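Quick one - first record:
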Amino acid sequence: MALSLATAFALVLGGAVAGSADAASACVGRPRKTVKFATGELRVYKSRAYACATAVAAKPGKRRAMSVTIQPRGGHPVTDSGSFTQLAGPVTVHALNRCVRVSGTIAGKSGGTSWILC
């Protein structure tokens, strides 16, 4: 019983353990927008009250500079940046009845959105 609960809890928190970027994304909610750019893509998710974003490398492997930022309209931006192999983020903001703006950079190439999810 305890093992079943621990397994269920792990699946809820992190999804199935696999090598894909989808499994690495810890965003809750439905995928709402994908913005592709030269070295990867931004993925934006929305639940009822929150918006979440990740920047995913097109070719995971070597470490490189990556960042992802999400900002609710009228609020402060939240950023995750560093040297990653596959994924920057997730970053989450409260976005109930608020638009958000998202941007990301991977190895010097970037992509972003205007105000979305309004």
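second record:
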Amino acid sequence: MFNQNRDIKIAYTKLAHWYKEVEESGFKSLQTVANSITLNYRSILNYFINRSTNASAESFNAKIKAFRAQFRGVKNVEFFLFRLTTIFA
């Protein structure tokens, strides 16, 4: 859906058809995913407006979590934020 279409209306229609197929399938795990997509479909379809994602923000968040795990937690938040800005800024 994301690579084949450039029009947001077509993507919205295909997303609605997918949701209908999930409802008819009866798989509970897929229904959970469908409910999440239903709550966030506007944000998902925003991809078709300017083809941008939040991948860079997610990547940076993963780097912060890895950095925090490396030191087994944070005791001094001020120093932690200082270290983050000096390393990643």
